[in-house]
Amino acid sequence: MAVNDFPIENLPFGVMQRDGEAHIVTAFGDDVLDLHACARAGLIDEPALREPDLNALMAKGRPAARAVRERVQELLTRGTADEHLVPMKDARLLLPARVGDYTDFYASVHHATNVGSMFRPDNPLLPNYKWIPIGYHGRSSSIVVSGTDVRRPRGQTRDDANAAPLFGPSKRLDYELELGAFIGAGNALGEPIAIDRALDHVFGFCLLNDWSARDIQTWEYQPLGPFLAKNFATTISPWIVTLDALEPFRVSPEKRPDGDPQPLPYLQDSVAFDVTVEVWLRSAKMSEPVRISRGNARDLYWTVAQLVAHHTSNGCNLRPGDLLGSGTISGTAKDSRGCLLELTWRGTEPLALPDGETRKFLEDGDEVILRGYCEREGHARIGFGECRGVVRPAIS
Ligand code: CA
Predict the structure, then answer these.
(1) Are the beta carbons of 30 and 90 closer than 8 angstroms?
(2) Which helix (H) or strand (E) element contains residue 80?
């Protein structure tokens, strides 16, 4: 892990296993600061820090988390909480929140165009794409924290259009490089969140790997969208980087190309985040991972505020701890494509690994590592840590 992901300007929230309990923590340099212990010792006046997950703190909205963050900066600067630091290498990090509902979007127009052109060469981008943030309701029960092994799913596939489908282990297992946005304060059922308040409802971002079985997906996705191709595992990083930490890295979204429609009034927004995101891969034979792609969340067609406003526009309620995935983050450059389906163009251009192996899709034993960070002159670099998972063989 990069040593400079967690300067005092970052202070992401997470949860760690300690003394048989789940403690809310933050990351500082190579250490983890036990915020539960700090609260119990009277160093921080925030009862939500004594809960076993972040949902209660999330429910209080961004000001509560901001107050904790500012107090922690004070404690760390003065060195008055040092007895509650634990080396990160000894920390067993857990899922940071109970994820109630999980929604995955499709916010990268480059990803949507690439994938669309493989599945529908004549009609890559459907006519709704530039008007409406496309998403689907995912499954929260299979969200796992970084470091959890992922079992290759089995499912129904059909390669030969003239034959019956087969049932067996997926042969085209893929990752998807995404950012996750955790909802903080929710909204009441029936009361949409206005776009200019949408970021007040976002607690922070994590890295998210939406593992995807492309062969299962191809056969099942019409007419109702992803189902078993996606819901067998979603891995997230243990750290949630707050929007306060991301403040210096707000940027304007990419200008929409000439001829593209402007968003409808309820979706007009101007805040993107400059987060570089990378995929690293290590096969079972490799000693070190190799970076295979690098993109940026700034390139997304739809902003996080647009996703939140759209999701609630019909009155749908979001709750503290709900998770929104951005969708695969791809750019225009080939090495910015955020999944193997795109990088290898559906397996037709295999990826060469430094040890001589090649990949069309993931093999058993492969480890996928997502990383993310923000850099801007005049500001401390902050990072997201890592989101890791090793592919294990399917159940025989
Ligand atoms: Ca996805």
Answers:
(1) no
(2) none
Cα 250 from Cα 248, distance rounded (Å)? 6
Give catalytic residues, as residue numbers. 111
- Give the type of residue at 78: R
pTM for the structure as a whole? 0.97
Q: Among residues of the chain, what percentage have pLDDT more than 70?
A: 99
* Residues contacting 310, CB < 8 A, separation 6+: 132, 133, 135, 266, 267, 302
pLDDT digits 0-9 by tens, 342-370:
999 999 999 999 999 999 999 999 999 99
Q: What is the pLDDT of residue 254?
A: 86
- CB 81 within 8 Å of CB 75: yes
Q: How far is the CA of 53 from the centre of ligand 1 (A)?
A: 25
Whether the bond into 223 is cis, omega within 30 of 0: yes
Res 1: pLDDT? 46
Q: What pLDDT shows up at residue 327?
A: 98
19 CA to centre of ligand 1 in angstroms: 36
Half-sphere exposure (CA, 13 Å, Cβ side) for 81? 27
**Rounded Cα gap, residues 192 and 188, in angstroms:** 8
For ligand 1, the distance from its centroid to the CA atom of residue 273, given in whole angstroms, is 19
* 249, 271 Cβ separation under 8 angstroms: no
| Nearest residue to 13 (alpha-carbon basis) of 87, 68, 59, 61 | 68
Signed CA dihedral, 266, 200, 138, 108: sign only: positive
Closest CA to 61 of 244, 195, 222: 244
Pairing of the two strands 21-28 and 92-94? unpaired
Low-confidence ranges of the chain (pLDDT < 50): 1-2
Residue 279's DSSP bridge partners are 293, 370
